[in-house]
Backbone:
């Protein structure tokens, strides 16, 4: 089912990226950022199965990291839509510096959190402290 949904989603991205669609830039970035969530979820699922013998949804350390990318996606889409609404109310404003700053802040926080927990070994330490998770976790 996943493979069948990818082609329509790529078509969706193509059409919302056209100038005639007038999609706010940050919203466009948010919808494209969802592909990063998908790309990260696939290897996380494989790691969950091979290292923990369970599905991704039951391995909190990996599942939380993957879901944080989805949270960033949602934030980008909402901030972009907010920017678009503001531009329709105040057409003289070409771009919103606040939304651009929010984009970089959200992205930096998400990436720093994911990389920091991995580099520091926090994700491994948490997984070791938890031990093998029960099947119904």
Residues:
């Amino acid at each position: 089912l996943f493979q069948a949904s990818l082609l329509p989603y790529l078509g969706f991205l193509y059409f919302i990226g056209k100038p005639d669609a007038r999609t706010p830039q940050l919203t466009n970035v948010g919808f494209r950022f969802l592909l990063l969530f998908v790309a990260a979820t696939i290897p996380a699922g494989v790691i969950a199965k091979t290292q923990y013998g369970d599905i991704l949804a039951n391995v909190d350390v990996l599942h939380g990291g993957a879901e944080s990318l989805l949270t960033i996606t949602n934030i980008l889409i909402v901030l972009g839509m907010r920017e678009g609404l503001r531009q329709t109310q105040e057409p003289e404003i070409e771009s919103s510096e606040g939304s651009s700053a929010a984009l970089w802040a959200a992205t930096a926080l998400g990436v720093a959190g994911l990389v920091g927990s991995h580099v520091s070994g926090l994700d491994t330490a948490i997984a070791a402290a938890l031990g093998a998770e029960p099947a119904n976790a």
Remarks:
- The longest helix spans residues 60-89.
